[in-house]
Each structure stands twice: as structure tokens, then as C-alpha cells.
Amino acid sequence: MAKGFGAGKPKKGNIKPQKAYLELIFALLKCPDNLKPKMLMANRNLIDSSLVKTLEIVAIKLAEEGDRQSANFLIELANSLAEELGLLSSDSKICFRFLLQMKLAMDKRNGHLDAVHPILQTYLERDNLFIQRFRSWATSKLNNLASQDAKFLAVLLATFGSIIEDFPLGNRAENVEQAIACHLTALEVLSLETSPKQWADAQDRLATACCNRIKGDQAENQQIAIDAYEKALQVFTREESPREWGKIQNNLGNAYRDRIWGDKTENLELAIIAHQSALQVRSRDEYPELWAMTQMNLAVDYRQRVEGDKEKNLDIAIAANQAALQVYTPSVFPEDWADTQNNLGNVYRDQSDQIFGDKSENLNLALSAFQAALQVYTHNQFPEKWAQTQMNLGNVYLGLKQTVKWIECFRAALEIFTPTDFPQDCFKASRNMGYAAFQSQLWWEAIEGFTTAIEAVELSRSWVKSESRRQEILEESIGVYQNMVQACINAGQLEKAFEYSERSRSKRLVDLMASYNLFQGEEIPPEIQELLQQYEELQRQIDQERQRHKSENNRSETRAAWEAYNEAIASLETQKQQVWENLRREDPVLAGEIQVNPLSLSEIQKLIDQPNTAILSFYTTNSDTHIFVVQQNQITLHTCTGEGLDTLQRWIEQNWLLPYRDEPKKWKTQINCILRELAERLQISELISEHLQGIEELILVPHLLLHQIPFAALPTGEYQEYLGDKFLIRYIPSCQILEFCQQRDTVGTFHEISLQYGTVEDAEDNLPCARFEGEQLAKMYNIPPENRLIGSSQATSKNYRQLAQQVQVLHSCHHAQSRLDNPLESQLKLADGSITLGQLMTPSWRLPQLVEVFLSCCETNLGTPSLTDDILTLSTGFLCAGARSVISTLWSVNDLATALFSIFYYQQRQEGKNRPEALQKAQIQLREFTKLDLNKIFQEVEVREKELIGNRKKYLSGSIEYEEWKLEYNMYAKLNRRIKEIENSTQQFPFSDPHYWAAFICHGLL
């Protein structure tokens, strides 16, 4: 139409007033068709990009007013001029045409969104990426429009979001994602101040989309929805917008009912309040359909209600559903009628479960209600609701003991509820099927259900960026893994049972180690660097607070001052935890960019180095503890019947962990007795005779509190023989982590002769044996002074990190402390503060050159694993940071015994023994160490102490030389006193008790 009118690109600075464009447009609309070209020619100076934009905006406004003929003319003219000016891409032309058709279709059907679905379907048939393309086009247009026009388009974009959210074709999960993106983009333009109603409407649409979201964290989705509904209620008040207020109250009630965060009881009460509020404006006389909808929602609230009398709540739920059915008749509202029948069926089923009334009668009433709903819900027309009702029907048939039918129903539901499309519903249906089959001892059907449930859980978990929420998801479903393992065992599927036991454990650690592999050798992104700085700064503040508190006179400290100190530390630790969570959200593994695939049995068997090595993988279910014995070419199983979670694991907690924490002296005296009983419970003697003949090395994968057990000190049943005498032993949190460690071994090959050693010794100047220990190692390996951090003048956090980045073998002999209440705050205590487990697990601690770390400190592998079996200790922290092997301790160790053990260990390493061999030999050597052997190692201690006494007068009191002398003298004096105490004792073997030698364990590689 505009060809030949002399249209050209607008010249710079040639800005025309908007009034001129509008006058031309309305003149064209009044002008006869045959005169329109002449009018355009006469006004060719106005033909530019601004005129095109104005034509588009006026066209949409005319379409909104119902003048479709004028709107179509202006659109055609805008497209023609844009093409002449070189402004129009094919995408732009198509998207604008769709926008106009969308508006016209909705106007024709009084705003009904489904009027646009056939149009959208047509566009998608031509271009299956049209939804993404349209959203991208609209977003770019928003950035180039004047404020008022941008608001207008933002409202249309938010409407488009709701259209695609309800679109029946395509991938529903992806449709909802696109809808949310549309709403968020619209809200970048709309604001409470400038366009309150449009802003509130977009908030309402966003909330609804988040409630329906399939991907992401369901807990977070629900909370975003609640927040958005609350924002919308700031504008849509009961007085000014009663209809909208009632709608949002109704939806807000649903969101509170489904809320995961917070207290369930409180959430349900809030849901009831919201629905009752909605009924204040949704009367039966004025809005019968909306009244019935809210009655039905209120029924669901009361059915799930925790407060009040359960039977009374269910009666209220039945009454509310029956009230809704007065409006929702099958002829007028068939889908709503079916929804209510479905809800009514659930109430009757709950009554049968609670044994209110006649159980059989209630089940049959539920059966009738669900079957009635299926008269409307067909597989083709209402697939989701059909599947939901099939699942409900399956639960009823289960109660009626009709096995064939409940299996059929659950399988039917899972045709629609797949892990990828509906993970939450899939999990519920497949879990119910698995549990039902398990109770009926139908092992293959149980495996079928649990397999699908686990797939759904793991997919849901992969969509969540919050580390804590990922843990919660796994903890909530850990029973599925346990039952899967047991069902596989009962079905004779040992391979599958072992694979799923491995699949359920240490996922948090696996994520952290996968993150290490990603960041190794790469630049850390700026946003992560900023969070790391925040984390380190908070740790610096904690260290300062502790140093200040230590330097004050604590004897005169008041209770109030002590509590203030504790509160200050707790507050800083809470802030650190939040920064940690934010750090983990930025992690590519948690963001779903990297997937860690579970290992198969054959892949795990390839991790076993020698034919005489076996992996012993422990797994405790509700009833039993299973020990999988995995060798290079076979797998067998030993079951400790009756040693389940409430028997074995609770027994360990009550007899081992709690006494250690609360009554350590008593715990020391009971160690031998407890370990004897534990060996009997785990049937160690039978395990050896039936499964471990010809085996020389064990790789232990403990489960839950078995991580805290010194397996080397378990008696075998043979006279005075321990498990550690018969086998070389090393630990690993999971086989997946063993694989990570082996992959690291290929990073570089280090020869023993070329290894650089570093020591951190007696960081707080109060461990004389640790300083002696460091001196002996320095002599053995010719460790240069620059690789030794000795005492409070050198062993600072900064120096420690620098040393850890330089050496291949790091030996730490100083204080450490485990925090069972907050594992990430477990710490290596240094001169100026501490290094925490949380720091070790951040991307700033990457130590790819570390071959071995020896944590000759207290409690460096003491921790209480979560239900997901994640053992977070300083030892596993170094594994995450890059070490291939870590020697650590299970409890608070004796200073002198630890020094001796360390010396013996490194002597064995010098003789060519691998780590488990050196550990075994050192434990035996310490156990068999006599009083007479003291002189062989400590012969120079007494002599050196006397020399130092003689040198006392050489140094001026208060001088640097004097202080150095004083430190060395105190070390030898204290060490000598320890030696004398042992020499004067009546024990021939002073370190024979497991308390002295059994705490040391080896994690990782040989």
C-alpha cells in the first residue's frame, strides 16, 4: 500500500509531534479508500518508524473497542510502511498479526482466554517455537516503546502468559515456564505506583502460574505464589473490588493448603480463613458457581485439617461437598460436578481409614463417587484428572483387598503421571503402588512402583537450586529407597538392591565433589567471588569475637556477658549459613547444568584394585542391616536380621554417640564392651567365614551412625584378634566418591621421592607432643623450615591455606573440634582463628595437588550423618577440596598416643607400605608399645630439658630469645612429665586400649 510514497529512513533530529501522527491516522480512517494513497503522499514527511509504532498502538486500542475493520486496516498499513522503511522482520510481522488476532478473539468472547487457543494452535503448527519467539519479540518491543504504550503491551503479554498456561497442547511444564516468564517481564514494566490494577492483575496471574508450576522447587513455588497473591490484595480490596478480592482469597486459600514451608497445622488454618473470607463476597444467590467452587475448596481444607476433632472435620467436609453439588449438577457443570465427586470420594476413603462409621460402607461410598467422576473424566478429554481419579480408585480397591484392580488403577494413573511431565503426582502414585505391593509381598510390582517413584524424586530434586531443599526432598522420600532395597533383596535382585542402596547415600557430598571437579583449574565467576568474600568476612568476625572473648578475664564474666557472646557467635553463624546457601544456589550442579549419574554394579566393580579386595557396603532398613560384599567378579549379601533403624542405629546412638558427647569418661571405660556387642550384632565372625575367605583388604562404606564406629577394633571372634588385624581397612562415604577420588589420581602422578611435605604444628602453643611429632616428621622427610608452621607465631589461617596449596602431603597436628549441631562450623583451630568445614567446601579451597592429608587432631571424622547418609566432617571436607586420601580421627585423641601413632605411620610409609598397610602396622605397633620402648623414642627429651634449664640465665627476661627459650622449655618439660607418668604407671602396654589406637581411619585411595 505504501510503495512509492517516498518513505525514507528518518533523519537524525527530525522528531515529529505525536499529535501529527494521530491526526493523520484518524484522517485516513475517515477518508474514502480511493483517496487514502493521496493523503499518505501529501504527508510523506510523517512516514517513519514512529508513525509505524503509533499505527500499531492505535490498531490494538481500536480492536479492544470492537472496531475490527479499522484495526485491520491500520495493521496492514503499519506492516506495509514498516516493510518500505526496512523495519519489518518476518518475525515482527507474524507476531504483531498474532497479537491483533489474540485481542480480537478475546473481545469477541468477552475476555475468555480459551478463545485464543485455536489461533495459537495454528501458529504452533507452522512454527513449534512460536511461543518462545513471540515472548522474545514482545520483550524487545517493551524496551523500545514509550511508557504508556509499554504498559499497554505489558498487560497483553501478561494475558498471553495466562493463555499459554492453560493451553491444552504441547509440554505442560514448559508452557507454565513460558507463562511465568511472561508475567515476570510484564511486572518489570508495570508498577504499583503507576498502574496499580494492571500490576495487581499481573501479580495474580504470576501467583496462579507458580501454583501450577511443575518444575523448580515446589516449596519455593508455593511461597512465591502466596507473596504474589498478598501483593495483589493490596490493590484488590473487598470494598473496591469485591469480585477480584474473593477470587484471590479463594486462590490464596489453595496456596496455603498446599504450602510446604511453615507449620502444616497453621497453614491449613490460614487456608480455612481465606476460603471463609472468599465466601463473604461469593454468596450463593449472587455468584452460585463461585460459591460452589469455594465450598469445594473448604471441604478439602477440612478433610486435611489437623486441629479440632477429626471425625467432625470430615463431617464438615462432606457437608461442604454436598453443598457444592447443589449448584454443580452433571448437566450444567459436568467437570465441576466430577471434581466434587472426586473430593467426596476422598473424604469417604479417609473415614474408612480413621474407622469412623462402617469401613466397608465408607469404601463403597468412595468407590461410587470415584466411578461417578470417571463418567466425566475421560482419558482423552481430562487426562490429568482421569489419572488422579485412577490413583484414588486404586487406594479404594486396596482397602477392599481387590489386588488385581488396584494394580490396574495405579498403572493407569502412571500412564499420564510420568516422572518428566508430572513428577509430584507421579511420585505419589508410584510410591502408593510400591508400598501397597510391598505390604502384599508382591516384590516385582513393588520394584516397578519404587523405580518410577525414585526417578520422579531425583528429577524433582535436580530442578531445585536450594541445597537445603534438595536435602529435604531426599529425606522425605528416603523410605522409598529403603523399601526398594528390601524389595529387590526379597526378589533375589542383589545387583539392583546394591545399586539403589548406593544411589540413596551421600548425594550432598557427591554434589559438592562434582562441583570441585567443575571449578578445578577454572576462574571463579565474579558473583561467586563476591559471596566467597562475604563468607570469609563473616568467619573473620567470628574469629575476632572468639579472640576478644578469650583475652578477657572470663573468671569474672557475668552470665549475661556469656549469653551475649554466644548470641553474637550464633548470629554470625546463621548469616554464614545463608551465604553458604546462596553460594550453593550459584553452583552449576545444583542449577541442573551438570548431572551426576548413579553408578552401576559393573562400574563400581571396576573401582576395586585387586582380586583380594572387597567393598563392604552397609545399609540399614526399618527391619534389618544388610552388608553387600562386592568383589571384582561377584556380589553376595549378608543380612543381620532384626538389626534395623530402631534397633541397631538407635542402639549405637544411645550407647556410643550420646555417652561420648555427654559422659566421655564413662564412654572410655565401656568401649571394649560396646564394640564386642556391636560385633555380635553385625555377625562379624559369620561375615568373615561365609563371605571374606581369601580377602585381604576391605573398603568400608558405612551407613548412618556406623560411620562413627572404629571397625578395626571390632573383635573377629578369634582369640585377641581384631578386624584390623585380619584385614587392611579404608573407609569411603559412598562408591561414587571413591570414583571421584580415583579420577583425581589421573590428574598427575607423584613419586614418593619427589613429594613435598608440609606440617602445621601446635598452633596454640599448648600441645607439647604435637610439636615433638612435627620435629620427628621434619627429620624423617627433611622438611624445610618454610614448609613448617610452628606455634602461634606461624600457624595462622592465611599461612595454612598457602601451605596447603604448595605441598602434596599435609600433616596437621594441633587442636580441632567437631560441631555435631552445625557440621559446617567444625573447625581446625589455628593461632588467629580457625578454618571451618564450610570454608573447605567452598570453591576458594581447591587443592588438586594434594595427595594425602593427615589430620592428627581430635574429632576430624566425627559427625552425625543425616537421613540421606551425608557425613560432613573435616575429613570429607578435604576430600571435597581435592585430597585423594585423608587420615583422620573418630574422637578426641590422646596427645602422646597420637604423636607416637603418627611417627609409626610415617615410618611404615617410608618402608613402602601403602596407607591402609601403614595404618594397620602403626595401630598394632602402638597397641603393643611398652613402657620400655619409651626410651627408644624419647631418649633425648630429658637430656634436652636439662640443657634448657642450664641455658635459662643466658637470655634477658622479656626478650625475644627468652620467649623462644621459654616455649621450647615448656614443651620439653610437659612432654617429659607425660613420659614419667607412663613410666610410673602399672600398665605394661600403656596404649593397648582401643581408645588410644582405634580412632585413626583412612579415607580415599591406597
What's the SSE blueprint?
Blueprint: H1 18-30, H2 36-42, H3 49-64, H4 68-85, H5 90-108, H6 117-126, H7 130-142, H8 147-165, H9 172-189, H10 196-211, H11 218-232, H12 242-258, H13 264-281, H14 288-304, H15 310-327, H16 334-353, H17 359-373, H18 383-399, H19 403-416, H20 423-439, H21 443-462, H22 467-476, H23 478-490, H24 494-503, H25 507-519, H26 526-551, H27 559-585, H28 601-605, E1 613-620, E2 625-630, E3 635-640, H29 645-662, H30 664-681, H31 684-691, E4 697-701, H32 723-726, E5 728-731, H33 735-744, E6 757-761, H34 768-781, E7 788-790, H35 797-806, E8 809-813, E9 816-817, E10 827-830, E11 833-836, H36 837-840, E12 852-855, H37 874-881, E13 885-889, H38 895-910, H39 915-927, H40 934-950, H41 960-983, H42 994-997, E14 1000-1004
Parallel strand pairs: 1-4, 4-5, 6-7, 6-8, 8-12, 12-13
Antiparallel strand pairs: 1-2, 2-3, 9-10, 10-11, 13-14
Q: Can you describe what's shown?
A:
The protein is α/β, with parallel strands linked by helices and 1006 residues long. 61% of the residues lie in helices and 7% in strands. The chain is built from 42 helices and 14 strands. The protein has a six-stranded mixed β-sheet, with helices on both faces. Mean pLDDT is 89; it is low at 1-15 and 746-750.
